[in-house]
Design brief:
Length: 420
C-alpha cells in the first residue's frame, strides 16, 4: 500500500505531455481478438487497467511483445481459453469488452461478472440483450456469464440508455455478421470513434462514428495494422484544472482542443484564459479570480462525468455558489465527504451537489474512493494549506500515468511513499 503526500499552496507553471487514452486503448486491445494476425498499438499509457487487459488477453492465449516507446505487438490469433478470469475482471469492468470479440471469432465466451470503481450501477444488460438479439445463448450464475453462438447474425438494436462499453461491445460483435447491423442510441464519445476508425483502417465497414446511429456491414476478416491511441481528454482536463486551481499557467501538449470543448467552455465561464493550437491547450489563471460555474454531466458531447469531481474541487475554492448535477452515475459523489474534511462547503440533495466557494482548503488525511475522486483529492491537496495525505491511491494508478511526476514537473511538491 502507498500514499501520496502533497505540500499545498504552490502555483503551477509549465508544460506537460498528454498520455494516450485508457478508455480508447482498452476496447482496441480487446478487438485484437478479431484478428488473424499481429497488430501494433502505440501511445498506450502505462496504467494498471491497461496491464490488466493485457494480462487477461495473455491468459486466454494472446502473444504480446513490448517496445520501449509505449508500443506493443499483440497476436490473438491462437486463443485457446476464451474465459475472462474472476481475479482479473473483478478489478476492472472494461474486461467485459472481450465478450463481443470472443463471440464473433470463437462462438463462445465465459466472463466473470464485472467489477471496477464503485461509482454506481453500471449493468451490462444492454450488452447481453444486444448479443442475445444477434443469436447468442446466454446463461448466468453468481460469478460468471456464459455465452455461445454458432454464428452471430446481423440485427437492429436500440440501446435503452446510452452505454459506451455496450456500444463498443456490439460493434465488435457485429464485425463478421453477414449483412448490415444497425445500432441506435449509441455512445458518441471520441474513444468510441477511435475504435471505429481503428477497425475501419483494418478493413471493417462501419459508418456513423460520432453519431447516435451506427451501421456495421459485415466483412470476412480484418487486416494487420499499426495504430496510435487517441490522447486522453480526461487526463488533459485534470492537468488544466491543476493549473486553474493554483492560479497557475499550464500548457498540455499532445491534445486537440476539439476533444475538450465542454471543459474549455466551463473554464471560460470561470474567467480563465484559454489558448488553443493544433496540438495543445494552454490555460492561464495567474490573474484570474475564479468564478463558480454550474455543471450538469451528460454523455458526449455534454460535460463528461469523468471531470465532475475535478470541477467540484475547483468550484470549492471559487467565488460564489454553484450546483453540480450528476446525470450519469448515481453514486459518484463519494469524494464529497473527503473534500469536506479539507474545509469545502458542499451539501448533497440526491443527484445534486451545492457548493459554496471558500477562500481556501486545508490539508488533511483523506481516502480515495474511486479513480476520479482520487484526482479531485490530489487537486485539493495542491491548493490546500499545509500537508495532505491521500491513501488508497491504487485507484489513481488505474487512470493516470505517473501523476505525481507530471505535476512535480509543473512545480508541485508530491511524494509517493509506502504505508508501513
Amino acid at each position: 500500500m502507498e500514499r501520496l503526500i502533497i505540500k499545498g499552496g504552490i502555483q503551477l507553471h509549465g508544460e506537460v505531455e498528454c498520455s494516450g487514452a485508457k478508455n480508447a486503448g482498452l476496447p482496441i486491445l480487446a478487438s485484437s481478438i478479431l484478428f488473424d494476425n499481429s497488430i501494433s498499438i502505440f501511445n498506450l499509457p502505462h496504467l494498471k487497467d491497461i496491464s490488466t487487459m493485457l494480462e487477461l488477453l495473455n491468459s486466454m492465449g494472446s502473444q504480446i511483445r513490448f517496445e520501449e516507446n509505449k508500443g506493443i505487438h499483440i497476436d490473438s490469433s491462437s486463443i485457446t481459453n476464451p474465459e475472462a478470469r474472476y481475479e482479473l475482471v473483478k478489478t476492472m469492468r472494461a474486461s467485459v469488452l472481450v465478450m463481443g470479440p470472443l463471440l464473433a471469432k470463437y462462438g463462445k465466451a465465459k466472463i466473470s461478472q464485472p467489477g471496477g470503481c464503485n461509482i454506481g450501477s453500471r449493468p451490462i444488460d444492454f450488452h447481453l440483450a444486444g448479443l442475445q438479439q444477434m443469436g447468442a445463448s446466454i446463461t448466468t450464475d453468481s460469478k460468471f456469464i456464459y455465452l455461445e453462438a454458432n454464428k452471430l447474425k446481423a440485427t437492429n438494436f436500440k440501446f435503452p440508455k446510452i452505454s459506451v462499453t455496450g456500444t463498443e461491445n456490439l460493434i465488435m460483435a457485429s464485425i463478421f455478421c453477414e449483412g448490415s447491423t444497425v445500432l441506435e442510441n449509441c455512445a458518441r464519445e471520441p474513444e468510441v470513434v477511435d475504435l471505429i476508425n481503428f477497425l475501419n483502417s483494418s478493413g471493417a465497414k462501419i459508418s456513423g462514428g460520432g453519431e447516435s446511429k451506427i451501421i456495421i456491414e459485415g466483412v470476412d476478416a480484418l487486416n494487420q495494422i499499426e495504430w496510435n491511441i487517441l490522447p486522453d481528454r480526461i487526463e488533459a482536463g485534470t492537468y488544466l484544472v491543476a493549473g486553474a486551481i493554483t492560479n497557475g499557467h499550464v500548457k498540455v501538449n499532445g491534445i486537440q482542443s476539439c476533444l475538450l470543448e465542454p471543459i474549455i467552455q466551463k473554464f471560460e465561464e470561470m474567467g480563465v484564459l484559454i489558448n488553443t493550437g493544433e496540438n495543445f491547450v494552454e490555460l492561464d489563471a495567474t490573474s484570474t479570480e475564479l468564478k463558480s460555474c454550474n455543471i450538469s454531466t451528460e454523455p458526449f458531447p455534454g460535460f463528461p462525468t469523468d471531470m465532475q469531481a475535478q470541477f467540484m474541487t475547483l468550484n470549492s475554492i471559487s467565488r460564489g455558489r454553484s450546483t453540480i448535477i450528476e446525470n450519469v452515475f448515481e453514486n459518484r459523489f463519494q469524494h464529497v465527504v473527503e473534500l469536506k474534511k479539507m474545509g469545502a462547503d458542499i451539501s448533497l440533495n440526491g443527484s445534486s451537489a451545492h457548493i459554496n466557494g471558500v477562500a481556501n482548503l486545508i490539508g488533511s488525511s483523506v481516502i480515495a474512493s474511486d479513480l476520479r475522486a482520487s484526482a479531485s483529492l490530489v487537486l485539493a491537496g495542491l491548493v490546500g494549506k499545509n500537508r495532505t495525505e491521500i491513501e488508497d491511491i491504487f485507484h489513481i494508478d488505474r487512470g493516470y500515468e505517473c501523476i505525481e511526476e507530471k505535476l512535480n514537473k509543473l512545480g508541485a511538491e508530491i511524494i509517493r511513499e509506502p504505508i508501513i
